[in-house]
Amino acid sequence: MRLFTWLVILIFLGMGCKQAPRNVITPAFYYWKQTWDTNNSQQTVLEQLPAKRLYVKLFDVTTTGDNNILPVAVLRTKAPLPKDLEIVPVVFLMNEIWAHADSTLVTKVAELVSQQCANISNISEIQLDCDWTQTTRKAYFNFIEQIRKHPFFRHKTISATIRLYQLKYAAKAGVPPVDKGLLMCYNMGDMRKAGEHNSILDLNTLQSYIGNNTISRYSLPLDIALPLFEWEILFRQGLNYEGIVRNVDVLDPSVFSKTSTQLYTVKKDTVLNGYKLRQNDVIRHEFIDATTLKQASKLIAKQLPHGNRAVIFYHLDSLILRNYPLNELQETIQIFN
């Protein structure tokens, strides 16, 4: 009898020592370019990560000078989208449209999404991306409620992007009427501010937004998006914000001198790729290295409740991916397990 009792005790102890089931993490990428075509280096990363899902921007919705609302940057596919990945269509809605939106907008957007998805099978999720504010939330949230009733959207998971300030100030910003959110863990600083700082991702800024439990208290389940991109920002005479410049080689010593970790000063007046650069203008190079990416992931992951979620890298670009060894991306994904 004693032996039987001890066996029962050991069985219960063994059951109590079992580890909780691990989260199921779905590795994914955003594809934000206007044209999709086959690309061997991108395909290799998708296969070896391995990615399970691809979030593809179909088009932007914006306003014209006469306040008409229309789609722009509509996706063109020169090759089929990957058949072995779950495709999530994404629509980017400019915040400015809500001042001019009418009752026809829902139908126009829904029908264009349906047309763009004609050759995509088994769509289970559609994502809406909008940087809404307290003043536009009513119009945007109403749009979401109405488009969910459209036949193409009905019975699908509807997700919405959540910026960090919308997370922190959820009481003012409101929570969109969707099934789940996608927390954008980038573009958190003031890119117009001169000097040496990183507006894409800064650990102190991230911590100020998420605090100790802001993520865990949010009322929607959250997927996570992390930055894999870089940009250069031009400041006239090092002070006045001029905007993002593209395809400018700041490492060209004939044009620039490196004055700090991020800052490059123009040596003489010149025109480079159509940009008129003046002597003493400054370009700030912003980039997120793999170490910072993993540190940010740890801050985020420790607040996430147990559950399955996607971890999405923004964005799929063969040039950018050269900066991130595959094992670094895999280790970043593992942080969320």
TrEMBL record:
Recorded superkingdom: Bacteria
**The protein, known as:** Lipoprotein
